[in-house]
Amino acid sequence: MSRHQHQQFLYALLAVVSVLVLSVKGDGTVVDEHLITCPEFTPPTILNVTELEGVWYGASRSPAHKFACVEMKVALTKNDTMVKITTSHAALNSTLLNTVKEATVDVLDLTNSNGFTVLYNLTNEKPTTYKIMGIDANKKYVVMCGYTSPDTADASFGLIMTSDRIPDKKWLEGIKDEVSKHFFNFAKDSVVDIQQSDKCASSAEIAVPVLSTILGVVYSVLRFMQ
What we know:
About 25% of the residues lie in helices and about 30% in strands. It is of the alpha+beta class and about 230 residues long. The protein has a domain at about 50-190: Calycin beta-barrel core domain (Lipocalin). The chain is globular, with a radius of gyration of 24 Å. This is Lipocalin/cytosolic fatty-acid binding domain-containing protein.
């Protein structure tokens, strides 16, 4: 083999190795060359809306979320033509659900190729476009994404909601690993688990027992004074 042929062989070998390095991860799993962003993703045209009904808890978000104890209640209304979404959350490092937001969405909009827009009933709340990427057949989790500006990839986010407030960590890691192979909004270096606790509760749930205790003390004092 001449020197020129030897160089050509090395260049060809280098090209093959480069392709393998770019297309294969360390564990041997082939990944997409182009990760899809939320604005690029096309939701499924058929969706069983009843699978969305119930209470969902924020499990992971990318980028990080500044809230804790995030939960979303989904209910069908007006003869199953509208979806009522009630979202509650606490401040970071807190367990008191002191913020409650409500919005109503047309059922047909859930499968809109451009996503569905949610505008909560709070002052200065920006409208956010959401897309449902997938619902677990056993209603254990929902994968969603959203954005406030379709032209800015950095303005979009990924969100995983689960039916358990505190899901199994290993199980959740498996979901995050899978979606991160295909979607820009679930990059492993930016996905953060949302703080959840078995002590998460609304202010009303806490106020009722406290009020009952106070009334009980007052009643006991009054009886003692009689």
